[in-house]
Amino acid sequence: QSVLTQPPSASGTPGQRVTISCSGSSSNIGSNTVNWYQQLPGKAPKLLIYRNNQRPSGVPERFSGSKSGTSASLAISGLQSEDEADYYCAAWDDSLNGWVFGGGTKLTVL
Amino acid sequence: EVQLVESGGGFIQPGGSLRLSCAASGFTVSSNYMSWVRQAPGKGLEWVSVIYGGGTTHYADSVKGRFTISRDKSKNSLYLQMNYLRGEDTAVYYCARFLGVSDAFDIWGQGTMVTVSS
Questions:
Q1: A52 to chain B: which residues are within 8 Å by CB?
Q2: Residue A24 — φ and ψ, nearest 5°?
Q3: Would you tell me which residues 42-71 of chain B have a C-beta closer than 8 angstroms to some C-beta of chain A?
Q4: Do A104 and B104 touch (CB under 8 A)?
Q5: Do residues A67 and A89 make contact, with C-beta atoms less than 8 angstroms apart?
Q6: Is residue A1 scored above 90 in pLDDT?
Q7: Within 13 Å and on the Cβ side, how many CA atoms surround B98?
Q8: Residue A50 near chain B (CB below 8 Å)
Q9: How close A99 comes to chain B (CA, Å)?
Q10: What is the rounded CA–CA span in Å between residue B14 and residue B103?
Q11: Residue ranges of chain B with pLDDT lower than 70?
Q12: Is B5 on the interface with A (CB under 8 A)?
């Protein structure tokens, strides 16, 4: 049971916009920044969004993040087949004194 | 090039011990926050441990008292000593750098598989 809650799956067709939610609590998302990681099949996770809505160099503008209260979301616009991957949200948890991850959302491009 | 390369995984019986290594290049391990994150087969990511620049360490409750994180400045490497291993420790173990400026794990290794089974 993950501390942060994500939908197990999401899907969309090429060109569509999809959103993945991440729900937490006051001890994690509510008081700390949220990061998003993309994990392609058989690969290591890759940082996609940091500090709620910042993109590392090289990450396309199609990817965007937002946070409100104890929830966050990742939006992918102009969906492409190569976006098919698992997506994880993460944040520091003040109560657990460690980082917590969402259970992951498997994105399928139909 | 900035990269992390893990090694040391393998097959081990319950109750056994294993030491994982993570060699860094392109940056200095001892100047950064470094963590271990694991992923059980078909499951999500789970943070395991962190060592801060000053040497302070923290562990997830699931491994506290059994795992020890450390680093070697001369080898620019990170380690995870795992004792009293259990079946639920079976996972791919990733080392990752936590960058304060980003407040995120910005560099990940390719992972090393640990299988605990009799």
A1: none
A2: -135, -140
A3: 44-47, 50, 58-61
A4: no
A5: no
A6: no
A7: 21
A8: yes
A9: 6
A10: 36
A11: none
A12: no
A35 and B104 within 8 Å at the Cβ level: the answer is yes
At A64, the amino acid letter reads S
Mean pLDDT of chain A: 97
Question: CB–CB of B84/B66 below 8 Å?
Answer: yes
The one-letter amino acid at B58: H
User: Could you tell me how many CB contacts below 8 A there are between chain A and chain B?
Assistant: 65
User: What are the backbone angles phi and psi of residue B87, rounded to the nearest 5°?
Assistant: -60, -35
* C-alpha separations of B94 from A12, A38, A78 in Å: 30, 14, 31
Instruction: Look at the block and give the residue holding tokens 């910042």.
Output: A54
For residue B102, the model assigns a pLDDT of 85
Model confidence at A58, pLDDT cuts 50, 70, 90, reads: very high
Q: Quick one: pLDDT at residue B44?
A: 96
- Tens digit of pLDDT for each residue in B24-51? 999 999 999 999 999 999 999 999 999 9
The chain A residue lying nearest B94, using CA atoms, is A44
Q: Specify the amino acid at residue B67.
A: F
Tokens representing A4? Answer: 């942060």
By the 8 A CB rule, do A72 and A7 touch?
Answer: no
A77: its two tokens: 């616009």
